[in-house]
Structure formats: structure tokens, C-alpha cells
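Appendix B. Extra example for self-study. Work through it before the problem class; the solution is given directly after the inputs so you can check yourself.
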Amino acid sequence: MANKKTEEGSNNRRNFLRLGLMSSVSAVAGATLISNLTADEVEPSGEKIRVLTPDGKMVEVDAKSINKYPEAVITPTESRKGIPDKKFVMVIDLAKCKNARKCVEGCQKAHKLDDHEEFMKVQLIQNNEEGSPYWFPKPCFHCDEPPCVTVCPTGATFKREDGIVLIDNERCIGCKFCITSCPYSARQFNWGHKEKFEDKSQPYSPETQVPAAEGTVMKCDFCPDMLRQGKLPHCATACPMGVIYFGDKNEDIVTNGSETVSFSQLIKDRGGYRHLEHLGTKPNVYYLPAVNRQFPVERGFDVDEEIIERYKDVPFVKELKEQGKL
Amino acid sequence: MDIIKRKSELVNEFSPMLEKSTKTSKIWVSFLILVILIGLVAFIIQVVNGHIVTGMRDNVVWGIYIINFIFFVCLSYSGAFISGILHFFKSPWKNSVSRIVEIITVLSLIIGPIFILLCIGRLDRLYFLFLYPRIQSPITWDIIAIMTDLLGCFIYLYLTFIPDFAMLRDNSENAPKWRQKMYKILAIKYYDTPTQREALHKITRTMSVMVIALAIVAYSVLAWIFSLTVQPGWNSSIFAPYFIIAGLYSGVSVIIIAMYLIRKFYHLDHYIRKVHFMGAGVILLIISILFGYFTFSEYFSRWFSHKIEDTKLLDTLFNRYFWYFIFANYIGVLVPVFILFFKKFRTIKSITFAAVIAILGLYVNRYLIVVPTLETPYLPIQDTRPEYIHYTATWIEWALSFAGIAAFILFFILIMRLVPIIPMSGIIDYEREQKRKPHASNNH
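Solution. C-alpha cells for the complete assembly:
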């Protein structure tokens, strides 16, 4: 009986999510107040509260079943489904990046990451000896042929219908095979114990990866929690230059927040490519080449002290400085 | 009745080895226990504080633990392989070494997997491997292969022990009660009747073939854990046969060293003779040439085709790891080849020396397969924390590694206290054969 109730609850929630994505903003705002009826049943408090459902009906629910947090939390099981009818894609315009590192900071804040834990990394790279170095923001590529997913022995990391590759850190046994099989070094491991792992104020969801857990793997997740609310991932929102476009391949639309363009047109017109295409992993992150750049590469260094400090000892940066290219 | 007398003679000959503990052996055992205890402390520290206490970080996520794992598991597979071949082809000099090989096989197969467990971040969730198994993952294949192999090797080892247990049961009136009882149970009513003997021979022979097959499968799966990824130093089609050869290389070397030590400490010069060392030396020579050939073709094709990632990896190998590379792939191959190639250099001591060099070289070769590849990913590491750029094993990792070796030796000593290291039943069989055709070869 109790089981059936829970099942119904989660079904309701999924319906609500689907509706929430389709219906108007006001309905979503009202709907998010509804409880997510998690596995543990709550004792009714007797106090009733009236809320608006996604389809516009006013209903009365028990006060105790109202969620403490604004967004419905997606449990690990539900997070394996993906957002229906979507195929998420990211386009990074290298010509506009000046290494402001706001994407990194925005991501770190949202995922409660420490200083050196970076889901989004900004690397300085060079295509060939003659080419000039450029800044290269690198999230997880959410490959369509993800080597990490293939090698996972427990199915802790998985590929969803909407193209996103996530990690369920309650399933992960920490064998690190996925880290060694990822050719893009997108994955990180929680090597030691940290205080933030104890913070249970937010229930765990693979979609937010908060709270992280010791001895498990984590990586960029394309912020599905934001996508469910119809918002952009944190890195795209944080970028002051509009470098990061994000959108849906099915609808053929990507946006950086200020400009919305056709994905296929953008790739066609600007010579979009995928990094290390020859590995056959079929990434869902595209790059627009660093041509007609808006900023010289040095701008990435003279912004603030912290950034200079961050790249000071990187071997490649040192090498470039010696060659006088920086 | 001749045979019964001979049996009790043999038991009397080998019994002191099983019962007597000398002062040196006591010191050795307590030293080994101390090393294991230090390893245990290191293990507790690692469990309490997490993997942060190791030298592994986000780029080099697998360190010497996985190298120890490959090393011990390969040792075991090669033991099974060699032992199976010895049994199946009824090699003339098998009797004196077969038990050493079998014990090496089983012990390393018990110790090896412990090292892979040390690599796992969440040991408390280990059962997830069985609760949510994914057959697509090479790790799942490896678990299946290792467990099957372990079971097969145990059965095989036990089968070879049965006749000796029976002899000990019948001839140990003076032994303590618990020993008599143990031998009685372990001998499972084997009375060496012709029917029993034939059945046992048949089963052992079948198992010896099975064990060879299991070893080849398990070896290949182990190599595939690396070669099925797209990483520059790993994605190689020759890795599976390369690992088989490398495993045999370490296997034969460890057997030679074990033969040397056992001969020395137990004064078994009569049983483990120079001819055994010569035979093993020639096998080691063949394998070292093969190993050198595989190593060469592996690195040669990487160097010649010079894809950018391979070039970067070779740069790492020839700069930061220059001396490691020279030791592993030049000294570790050429010195044994040189010593073993010329007949006049082949003495018991020099063959053992060649085996030691081979093992050390092979260990470093393993290190060079694992660590530099992880330090040279497709996208260069741009980190400012030195421990994230280069891997150095911490004392915790070394303590646990040495504890593994100590446990290997300790268990070896303990098993030698249980059954004689030279299979007595083999001696009987041999003498029986001799009587039937007295002009057969004069080797054990």
C-alpha cells in the first residue's frame, strides 16, 4: 500500500515536470510549491494550504507535504530518465573568450565546489606551433558514445535520453575506471573527506551533485536542475561575454542568454567543430574556432591577481612565455 | 609392500621440514608479521582518511596499487600456465618444481585482488558489483575471470595435494592429534588404490588443461582493462599477448627465485638440482627474448608512426622517466638475455640473478605502462598543484605493497609447514615408472 502511494507520488511528480516545462511561468511558480512526496511518508499535520497545480486548478494539501526547497528534487532513479523530447547541446565561441573565468566561478558556486574543483576548466591551448594560443573552456562533452559509461561496472554513470551523462554518487563504488577512460579529463574524484559532504540541507540528486560524497566521481552535469526550470546552465548565465550557447538540438535552437540562433546555421556559418573528433566519442559540445578574436590572449592574464596566480606555474604557459608568445 | 615402506621413508625424510621451527625461521616469520602489521596500520589510515593519503590524484588515478595487482595476478596466471603445461606434458623434471609453482599460483591469486580493492574509493559499496552488474564493463569481465580462475586453481592445487595428504595421514603416528585429524579430513579417503590413482590422474590432467585455458582468458581480460580505452599508451592491439608474455616472464623468474631460496634454506640440493635451474634458465631466455620483442614492437610502432599523442607520451618516457625506461626495457631485458644466452654463464647463482633483474625490470615496465600514460592525457594537465601533475607513491602505498609481498612469503612458509614442498607422491610415481622401464631418464 505504502509502496503504491510512493509510486503514484513519483508519477504525479513526473507529470508535473512534463507539464511544468510546457506551461507558462506563473503556473510553474505555483506548481513548484507542491510536495514531491518522497519515499518517506510524512505524518499529516492537519494544517491545510491551498496551492495552484500546473493545469491551473486550486487544490488543498497538507502543510507538511509542502516542499522546503523551491525546486522539486529529482531522485537518482528519476534522474536516469532525462527530460523528454530534448537533446541538449552546447556551443562555445572561442573567439569571444577572454578567460574571465566567470563560468568556472558560477559553476563552482552552484555545485558547492572548492577552489580547485572545476567542472568547467579554462585551458590555454594551441592548435599547432604556428597558431596563436587561445583560451579553451572545457566542460564535460556529454558524448553520444561515452567511454566512461561503457566501462562503469555498476551503472553509476549513465547516458540519458536527453543526451546528458550523469553520475549517481550513491551508486558509484569509486573504481575510477571512468576517469581513466575519459579522453578529455572531464572527471574528478573526491579523494578525502570534506565538511561539505555532511551538509544534508539539500537532498542529494545526481542532477545537482550536491552534496558530493567521499570516494566517488563527479563532473560537469549540464545543470539539468536549471534546464527543468527552463533556465540556462550556470556557466552560460555567468559568462559576461556570451561565449557559451546552450540549447536543444531537436528544436535546432541555441542561446547564450542575449542572442538566440539556429544551432545548425551557427555551426555551418562559423565552422563549428568538436574537439578530438577522431576519437569517435561524438561529443555534444561544439566549438567555434578562435578566429577574428575580440580579445588578445594576454587579456586572460591581466584581469586579476587570482587568475594570474592560477596559471603562473602551468608548464605550457611558462613555455609560451619563454618563447615570447605571451 | 615395497611402496608402503618407501612412503613412510619419505614421510620421515620430509617430516622435520613440517614440524621443526628453527631460530632463523622464527625471526623471519616475526619480521614478515611486522611488515604485514605496518601494512595493516597503513590500510586503517587509508580507510579512515580516504584516498587523500595516497599519491593518487585526479590525473593519475591508479598508482602502484594497480601495478601490484597486475603483477600478482599475472604471476598467478603464469603459475597456472606453467604448472598446467608441466602436468599435461608430463615433463621429466616437473616433480621438484610443480608444487612450488602451484603454491605461487594460488597465493598470488589471493593477494593480487586485494590490491585492486585498495584502489576502490567506496569499499563499503563493493557488493554493488553484484547487485547492479553491467556485463559491458571490462571490470565485470575481470571479476568473473578472476573468480573462475581462483576456483579452478584451488581445485587444481587441492587435487595435487591429495596423495600427499594420504601419505601423511598413514605415516604420522607421532604427529600431534590435530595434524593427524587434519590430514585425515584433507585426504578424503584416498588410499592410493589403482582405480583411485587413475581417476585422480585423469581429473588432474583435465584440470591442468582447464587451468591453462582459464589463465589465457583471464590474462587477456586484464590487458583489455587498459587496451580497450582510448588512452595513447594503452590502446594497443598487442596488449593481451604482451601481458601473457610479461606474466610468464615474471612467473618463471619468481619460480627460479623461490627454487633458489627453498633449496638453500631447506637443504634440498638432492631434489632441486642444477638441471632444474638450467631448464628454467632456458625457458626464461626464450621468454625474455619474446618479451623484449613485444616491448620493442610496442614502442617502435608508436615512435615510427608518431601520432601527436604518442609523441607526447614518448617525450614523457624519455625525459622524466629516462632511467626508468632504460632500466625496465633495456637492462631488464638485455641483462637476463646476455646471462642466459651463453652456456658458460649459466650457473645457479647467475640464473637467479637474471631472474631478480627480470622481475625488477618488469615491475618498472608496468609502472611505465600505467603512470606516464595517465600523466600525459590528450588535453595537457594545466594544474598548479604539483601533486596533481606528477604521481609519487606515499609511504602508505609502499607499506601496503611490502605487506603484500610479506604476506606472500609468509603464506608460502605456512603452506610448506602443511605439506612437503617436494610432492612425495610424485617421487613414488617416478620410482614406479623407473621400475617399469629402468632405462628411462635419470631426472626427477
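Self-check: Confidence is low (pLDDT under 50) at residues 440-444 of chain B. If your reasoning did not lead you there, revisit section 3.
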